[in-house]
Each structure stands twice: as structure tokens, then as C-alpha cells.
Design a protein that fits this description.
OB fold (Dihydrolipoamide Acetyltransferase, E2P), 34% helix, elongated
């Protein structure tokens, strides 16, 4: 059953659906920049997902609603203000039906049954003077459609925020295909993570925070759109490693070391041969390890950024992978980019 709630109507008679955020904190407070930052990023995420669902831009207004008394809940209200003209009466959500079903496990029709009951109660309630008058003809049916389409936006937003990157990838929602949505969600969780008072967070109506602080990294990933070109350079480097990360699937923390010039570098190792040896106990690590490798480095505005170790030639005194020729290295890079980008598959999950 849907977790959405129709909470009323705005001054123009448009339905308002709630989008709650529950914080697990010892004291009844969160930082102001956390409150504002999370709400803003959730709003951005909702706009991005709405465009993904309907294939066109719609105008959405997000309100801050009063929380339940005594709760640690931040409640947002979502209203579709404009842009529905090309959707109503056309089965507009058909564009995103596969996206919706894959993410939520429900079809829009399943939501409409519950929401229809809520809508009838709201329209017939004398206590809600802002609600439109109940009609038996066209306007009432159109209002029902607006509620259903707004609910699609709310439900998808709640599910997208609540699922780990691994779960979204398993549902066929690829970070490269939906880069803007994944990046907005990452920024949302970063606002939560920097507030050390918050032990967990939840996006449902229940007073629960199932997403615990130690798992925040599973909901974050920095990615790019499929059509966004990269500028990369390839180098053979020697790094002196001071802080390794032996968990290949930990996307939060990178390897840390220094290059020959003494500069601090952070990098990810995606060499399968290296990880096979590491997992089988075939590598000896010291306080400071020396790594000789072929590396792909992303360049942005003339500055070196993300580093991916493609082939570890030597780890301390142990040979690992054969050094590739420039031609072989170019082919290797193109194959990686065409399959999953430079991201290690583990780092995506």
C-alpha cells in the first residue's frame, strides 16, 4: 500500500501531498543548514525525477508543512503548479511507467485506488474550506488525475531516496543514465552526514529512521551523464601509499598516498589481478607501500582530479599485472568506458 498522504489543497485548489523526512537525533533539534539543505536537495531531486517520469518539464512547488507534535519530522508538501496540460487525459505517465514500476514495485493504478478514497474524503469534508466543491462531472475527474500524477512524483522521490545505490542498480536504474538524480541524492545525504547529531534518517510516514549513519555511504555516488564527455590523461606513476583501503566495495573512502613530487593523491584501484591477490592473501602490506601503476586521471579546467589505477605493475617488490603498451592501454580504456565508465563495478554498488 502506498505511503503517500493527501494533506489538503493550496489556495488555487491544487492538491498537496506530503513528503516526510524523519531524523533520528538524541535531542529534538537539527542544524538549520541541515534542515534547509536537505529540503532544497529533496526539492531538486523531485524536479529531476518528475522530468524523468513524464518526459517533459513540469512546475512543482514544494512547501514546508508543520510537523506532527512532538515528532522529529520535517514535512514537505508537493504541489504540481503547471505543465500538466500535455499529460492529463493522455496517459502521460506511460512514458515513465517502466521507471515507476521498477523503482516502486507498483503501478500508478494501484496508487489511484487509495488516493481516490482520500480525495473523496477531503472533498466532502466540511472542515477543509480550501477544498474544491465535489463535482460529478469533468473537473472532479481531472482533479483525480492531478492527484494521481502528483502522487507518482512523490512516490518515486520517496523510493529513490530510500533505496541504496546497489538496490537502484539492481532495479535497472543506472547512475550514468540518471546522473542528475543520483548526484542530487548524494548532496542530500551529504547535508545529513555532516550533522553529527543525526544517527539515522527515514523518508516514510512511520516514526522510523531505517537508514543508519554507518550506511550513509551506500546512498551516495558521484557520477556523470552518459552523454557528458570526459577528458582523461594516462600516466605511469609511482605512489607511496600511506592509507590503503582493502575493501574493494567501499565507495566512500579512496586509497591515499603521495606522488613523486610529494603531492597528496587519492585513487581507486580497478585492476582485477590486484584484487584477486589481495583477497587470497597474496600481498604483503607495510606501513608505507610503494605502488607502480598505469593510471587514468580526469582533468577538469586544467586540474587533475579523479584517479583510477587501471593496472598495478608492481606492489612493493611483487609484480602484479603486465604493463600495457600505449595501444593496448587505449583499447583497455575504451572498453572500460563503453561498459561502465572508469568506475569500478564494485564502487557503483
Amino acid at each position: 500500500m502506498s505511503s503517500m498522504r493527501l494533506v489538503g489543497f493550496d489556495p488555487a485548489g491544487r492538491p498537496v501531498l506530503s513528503l516526510p523526512i524523519y531524523y533520528d537525533v538524541q535531542e529534538s533539534r537539527v542544524r538549520l543548514d541541515t534542515f534547509i539543505g536537505v529540503a532544497k536537495q529533496y526539492e531538486i531531486l523531485i524536479h529531476i525525477l518528475a522530468e524523468e517520469i513524464f518526459g517533459q518539464q513540469i512546475v512543482i512547488q514544494v512547501y514546508v508543512l508543520p510537523p506532527e507534535e512532538g515528532s522529529l519530522r520535517q514535512v514537505l508538501g508537493v504541489v504540481v503548479v503547471a505543465g500538466m496540460g500535455g499529460i492529463l487525459g493522455t496517459g502521460g505517465w506511460e512514458i515513465g511507467r517502466g521507471f515507476i514500476n521498477g523503482l516502486t514495485g507498483q503501478s500508478p493504478e494501484e496508487w489511484s485506488q487509495q488516493l481516490g478514497e482520500e480525495l473523496r474524503e477531503m472533498l466532502s469534508s466540511e472542515a477543509d474550506e480550501s477544498a474544491p466543491t465535489l463535482q460529478q462531472e469533468g473537473p472532479d475527474f481531472e482533479l483525480q488525475q492531478v492527484v494521481e500524477l502528483t502522487s507518482a512524483v512523490v512516490e518515486v522521490g520517496q523510493h529513490f531516496a530510500s533505496n541504496t545505490t546497489r538496490d537502484l542498480v539492481s532495479a535497472g536504474i543506472n547512475p550514468e543514465q540518471y546522473a542528475d538524480a543520483f548526484n542530487a541524492k548524494t548532496k542530500l545525504f551529504q547535508h545529513v552526514e555532516v550533522d553529527i547529531q543525526i544517527n539515522g534518517i527515514g523518508f516514510g510516514h512511520e516514526r522510523e529512521a531505517p537508514i543508519r549513519r554507518e550506511d550513509f555511504g551506500k546512498y551516495q555516488i558521484h557520477t556523470k551523464r552518459e552523454d557528458e564527455p570526459d577528458e582523461w590523461i594516462l600516466e605511469t606513476v609511482t605512489y607511496r601509499v600511506s592509507s590503503p583501503n582493502w575493501d574493494r566495495y567501499d565507495s566512500r573512502r579512496k586509497w591515499k598516498g603521495r606522488d613523486r613530487e610529494g603531492g597528496v593523491v587519492y585513487f581507486v584501484i580497478i585492476d582485477d589481478a590486484f584484487w584477486e591477490l589481495a583477497n587470497s592473501g597474496g600481498l604483503d602490506s607495510n606501513v608505507i607501500d610503494e605502488l607502480v601503476a598505469q593510471v587514468a586521471i580526469k582533468v577538469t579546467d586544467g586540474r587533475k582530479g579523479e584517479r583510477y589505477v587501471l593496472k598495478v605493475i608492481r606492489f612493493n617488490d611483487k609484480p602484479i599485472s603486465k604493463e600495457l603498451s600505449p595501444t593496448e592501454l587505449g583499447e583497455f580504456v575504451e572498453n572500460r568506458r563503453s561498459q561502465s565508465g572508469f568506475h569500478d563495478q564494485g564502487s557503483l554498488l
